[in-house]
Amino acid sequence: MFDLTGKHVCYVADCGGIALETSKVLMTKNIAKLAILQSTENPQAIAQLQSIKPSTQIFFWTYDVTMAREEMKKYFDEVMVQMDYIDVLINGATLCDENNIDATINTNLTGMMNTVATVLPYMDRQMGGSGGLIVNVTSVIGLDPSPVFCAYSASKFGVIGFTRSLADPLYYSQNGVAVMAVCCGPTRVFVDRELKAFLEYGQSFADRLRRAPCQSTSVCGQNIVNAIERSENGQIWIADKGGLELIKLHWYWHMADQFLHYMQSNDEEEQE
Length: 272
Fold this sequence. Notes:
Blueprint: E1 8-12, H1 17-27, E2 33-38, H2 43-52, E3 57-62, H3 69-83, E4 88-91, H4 101-123, E5 132-139, H5 150-166, H6 169-175, E6 177-184, H7 188-191, H8 203-209, H9 217-229, E7 236-240, E8 243-246, H10 257-264, H11 267-271
Parallel strand pairs: 1-2, 1-4, 2-3, 4-5, 5-6, 6-7
Antiparallel strand pairs: 7-8
Helix pairs in contact: 1-2, 1-9, 3-4, 4-5
């Protein structure tokens, strides 16, 4: 179990929908500090969160997840002045715009990867940090393909690949930062929007999705926090249909014995 009591949490996502509901649950877990980095100001949401737990310090920064990593470093230098340290980084920024592939990939994948690369040194035990947990909030169509939202699905597949790669013991055994992902199923705030299919052939499906029965943002947010509390390094969870499911990871490719031996050998063995 991952105990959130007293933790310093940094949430990168617009404070509405799933992110807001997740933050509400976090505020009931006796966290010490919550930093919210979002693209637009939402003082009503911040006030709502503060009313849940007045003793928890909440900080807000306007943040563009697609900015260059050099600019991110400047932002997080300022964040760390207020936060002191980060125990939990939650990446929840998301965009589904099949007409703007660059923006979709940059928001969902590239921006998330740059954010993680920027924050990791503050958390890394080898660099003076205390370790911690990185949570990537993604989608079930990062596990299975979507014939309608192809660009969005591709970006979410990337999130899963990045999560599993970064959770490898090669890193975790040294930096002490666990990495996990929560894949949300169809959720009301997402399907309420006007969505465009990647190709016109799928538009009728996208239109019908707006009326489909989906889980609420509050239930999804609760299950994201449940997954965090039950987390272990490398886990991938599905939060869908009001429930939470830990998926069994599958490996399609296995290294040849000779290749595996070579990769695991040290330089001295190689020189011999």
